[in-house]
Amino acid sequence: MLLELADWMARHFTALHLFQYITFRAIMAALTALSLSLLCGPWLINRLAALKAGQVVRSDGPQTHLVKAGTPTMGGVMILLSVTVATLLWADLHNRYVWVVLGVLLSFGAIGFYDDYRKLVLKDSRGLASRWKYFWQSVFGLGAALFLFHTAPHAVHGATVAETALYVPLFKHVVVPLGLFFVVVSYFMIVGFSNAVNLTDGLDGLAIMPTVLVSGALGVFAYVAGNRVFSEYLGVPAIPGAGELAIVTGALAGAGLGFLWFNTYPAQVFMGDVGALAIGAALGCIAVIVRQEIVLLVMGGVFVMETASVMIQVASYKLTGKRVFRMAPVHHHFELKGWPEPRVIVRFWIISVVLVLVGLATLKVR
């Protein structure tokens, strides 16, 4: 929106050519989303408290969590609103990738919102049935995957097309053409990461800080992929138009920092499914577009670890009747071992910083 206005006015004010730079607009999107989060946060928290949309604490969980009961939830609305407004203001709205990611963010957010609303406002403990939640995640995830596949250029005479091939980090020439299997990979990345972030969102600030870090790193990959000179020099797949996603990732990082202001220990608000499902799906979608699925699994290792702990716990109990962890996801395991909640949170943040740096290092190590 502002880009088009600036282009029109640049004929009279040459300084407005600054809006042509993706880096400038990404920074402005981050600051805009941060400001919106900080401004609307208090109002939203009070509104959620008035609706009595408070956190329900598991009776079998750590006893220290009992004090969290009643804390306003569904704060993810703050993130979605801030990201959407900042993106619409600063991104090139003619870019299809921007609309795909926004569509994924809002559609998965709608699923989470309906689930949260039924559980927290209507006091329906069942919320949205798991089968229906997964069904709608699959519909929107598959829809995004099919759109990206059908709008991407396809191979001619056996040539490999960047938009639909799998790139293996550390190896410059290891490229696996996916063909129609691209849809399957994209689907699992979007839906899988949506649920992974949701599982991680169990402690104050635990999920949002890794989200900020991973978003920023994906923004770097998007910028490089969208710049033919940089992508050729670094051996990264060139994806024309992907650079605009740096504005979306900037907005997501800024909104995340704004949310963290209220979500840091002890939290004044929780994001709920409306935030967690949307954020995870958006990260997965961005990674698919910039062809960095494997790198996302590394940088988002905290999310992967949390999901793996649940899968291991369930499989172990069904096969042997024994539990591997005291409680899953794994952050609860460390709490039950006696770690104070802030220690668990900060140490997981440190792990996330390290993994993001490892992921960024793959830009050069090829």
Give the end-to-end Cα distance, rounded to a whole number of Å: 38 Å
Helix content: 55-70%
**Low-confidence stretches at least 5 residues in length (pLDDT < 50)?**
none
Order of helices and strands: HHHHHEEHHHHHHHHH
Strand content: under 5%
Sheet with the most strands?
Answer: 2 strands, antiparallel
Q: Say what oligomer this is.
A: single chain
Rg calc = 21 Å
SS class: mainly alpha
- Please state how the strands of the largest beta sheet are arranged side by side: 1-2
Counting DSSP H or I runs of 4 or more residues, the number of helices is 14
Mean pLDDT: 90
Please give the number of β-strands: 2
* Whole-number tally of structural domains: 1
Q: How does the overall form come out from the CA principal axes?
A: globular
Could you characterize the architecture of this molecule?
This protein is mainly alpha-helical and 366 residues long. It has one domain (28-361). Helices cover 65% and strands 2% of the residues. It has 14 helices and two strands; from the N terminus they run H-H-H-H-H-E-E-H-H-H-H-H-H-H-H-H. Strands 1-2 form a two-stranded antiparallel sheet. The model has no long low-confidence stretch (mean pLDDT 90).
Keywords:
366 residues
